[in-house]
Backbone:
């Protein structure tokens, strides 16, 4: 368990805290991430609200890819 995981009681609290952060990615990067995610979701038939909300954490630059992966592992290992 890393320091971020110890900071939150559950994945919902982690996601909520992350979404309050200021993003440091450019608008161009955000658009590129969104475009890639939308294409992936269309191809894979992903449309559930929880998964899409999780994706927004990374798309909007609220977590680094490394933290996002840790978040997903934490969320799904505690489900």
Residues:
């Amino acid at each position: 368990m890393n320091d971020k995981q110890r900071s939150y009681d559950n994945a919902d609290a982690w996601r909520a805290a992350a979404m309050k952060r200021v993003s440091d990615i450019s608008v161009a990067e955000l658009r590129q991430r969104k475009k890639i995610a939308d294409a992936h979701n269309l191809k894979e038939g992903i449309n559930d609200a929880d998964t899409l909300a999780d994706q927004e954490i990374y798309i909007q630059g609220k977590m680094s890819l490394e933290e996002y992966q840790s978040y997903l592992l934490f969320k799904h290992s505690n489900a």
